[in-house]
Amino acid sequence: MKSITDEQGNALLEGVAFAAVAFGLVLNLGLNLFQMQEKALELQGLARNVMRVHLIHPEEALGSLVARWQALSPSWRDQELKFDLSCDSSCPANSVVWLHLEGSDLKASSFGVPSD
Question: Which helix (H) or strand (E) holds 84?
Fold first, then answer.
């Protein structure tokens, strides 16, 4: 009878153990990737919503718009977000305006054309 301290291994037991550990690592990696993708999509939605409201109500401060939409986001509610609004060099009429959001090593951009 084999004992636990025996130097000879059991190939079936080792194979099952290796498969279980490998499956656990792959499952963990997949869940982490899913969470990262969820945060990226949510940040992109934030950028689109803030840009849409900014184009409809340009008199509202961009910082308050970002804070309002960020408070509604489960993933970004407690995170720090950096935002930047940019356009062409002199911002002529009917030029494209870009909103860039950045947080937790993720970036999202949205654009729009303000009406006169």
Answer: strand 82-87
Are 83 and 90 in contact by the 8 Å Cβ rule? The answer is no
Average pLDDT (69-73) is 92
Specify whether the CB–CB gap between 50 and 99 falls below 8 A.
yes
C-alpha pair distances (Å), 46 with each of 33, 34, 60, 73, 83: 20, 18, 16, 8, 11
Q: What is the pLDDT of residues 4-33, one digit of tens each?
A: 666 676 788 888 889 999 999 999 999 999
What element of type H or E holds 53?
helix 11-56
Report residue 91 as tokens: 């911002």
Give the Cα separation of 100 and 86 in Å (integer): 8
Tokens of 4: 């636990």
Cα angle 49, 51, 53 (rounded to 5 degrees) comes to: 70
